[in-house]
Design brief:
48% helix, globular, alpha+beta, 23% strand
Length: 244
C-alpha cells in the first residue's frame, strides 16, 4: 500500500511539474513581448511625459512577473538555479529593508539576524530573498493592520550537521489543521479570487527541497503562524539537490 501511495504521489507531482513548466514557458513568452514593447515606448518618451510613469510601472510589474516565472521553472526542474555561498544574515537584513518600507503603522516588525556574519548557505541568492519576501508578505497579510511580525535567523546543530534556521512568525489569523496540512500544495489558497493563486508556499517549499532543506508550518486559528525554513550550512550539504 505504501509503495502504491508513493507511486501515486510521484505521478501527481510529475503532472503538477509538467503543468507548472508549461504555464511558466507560456507566461515567459508573453512577458518578453510586454517587456520589449514597454522598453521601446519608454525610450521614446521624454522623462517629463505624463505616460512615462505608466511605462515605468508596467516595466516594474513585468519584471516582477518574470521573477515569478523563473521561480516556477526552477521549481519544475526546467531551469537551473545560480547556486553559490550566501551570507544568511545579510540576506535577512536586505529583506528587512523591503519589509520596513511596506508595513502599516499598526504592524510591528522584529528582525533578528542572529546566525552570525560567517554563516552562509549554498543557495541561489535571488531565490532566497524572493522566498523570504513571499513568506514575510504572507505574515504581513495575516496580521492585517495591527499585529506583530518576526523574522529571525539562527545557527543550530541538526541531525545531518550544522543548519541555518530562518523563522517567520506572526500573531495574525492563523490556520486550522486542514488548511495547514494543505498550505504547501500547488495552487491551494484560502484567499478570494484575484488576491492570490496559491503558489507562494508551494514555491517556498520547492526552494527548501531544492537546496537540501525543509520548510515547516505551525499554526492555529486566532493565534498565528510560524513558518520555519531550515537550510544546511554551506559545506555541510552532502545531499543531492532535487527540485522535484
Amino acid at each position: 500500500i505504501r509503495a502504491e501511495t508513493l507511486a501515486a504521489e510521484t505521478e501527481r507531482r510529475n503532472a503538477v511539474d509538467s503543468l507548472t513548466a508549461g504555464l511558466a514557458h507560456n507566461l515567459n513568452n508573453i512577458l518578453m513581448v510586454v517587456q520589449g514593447n514597454v522598453d521601446q515606448i519608454a525610450a521614446e518618451l521624454p522623462d517629463d511625459h505624463p505616460a512615462r510613469l505608466n511605462a515605468d510601472m508596467t516595466r516594474l510589474a513585468s519584471q516582477r512577473a518574470a521573477a515569478i516565472t523563473r521561480r516556477l521553472m526552477v521549481y519544475s526542474g526546467q531551469q537551473l538555479a545560480d547556486i553559490r555561498p550566501v551570507p544568511i544574515d545579510a540576506a535577512v537584513t536586505r529583506v528587512k529593508a523591503a519589509l520596513d518600507a511596506s508595513l502599516p503603522a499598526g504592524v510591528r516588525a522584529i528582525v533578528d539576524p542572529g546566525a552570525g556574519d560567517a554563516a552562509t548557505v549554498e543557495v541561489d541568492a535571488t531565490l532566497l530573498e524572493e522566498t523570504l519576501e513571499e513568506l514575510t508578505a504572507n505574515a504581513r497579510a495575516a496580521v492585517g493592520d495591527s499585529g506583530t511580525l518576526q523574522l529571525s535567523s539562527a545557527r543550530t546543530d541538526g541531525r545531518d550537521g550544522p543548519m541555518i534556521v530562518i523563522t517567520i512568525a506572526d500573531n495574525g489569523t492563523g490556520m486550522d489543521e486542514d488548511t495547514r496540512r494543505r498550505a504547501k500544495e500547488p495552487f491551494f489558497t484560502t484567499r478570494a479570487i484575484g488576491q492570490g493563486v496559491g503558489l507562494g508556499l508551494s514555491l517556498a517549499d520547492g526552494f527548501a527541497r531544492y537546496t537540501g532543506g525543509i520548510l515547516s508550518i505551525d499554526s492555529a486559528p486566532s493565534v498565528g503562524t510560524i513558518v520555519t525554513l531550515t537550510l544546511p550550512v554551506h559545506g555541510q550539504n552532502g545531499r543531492e539537490r532535487n527540485p522535484q
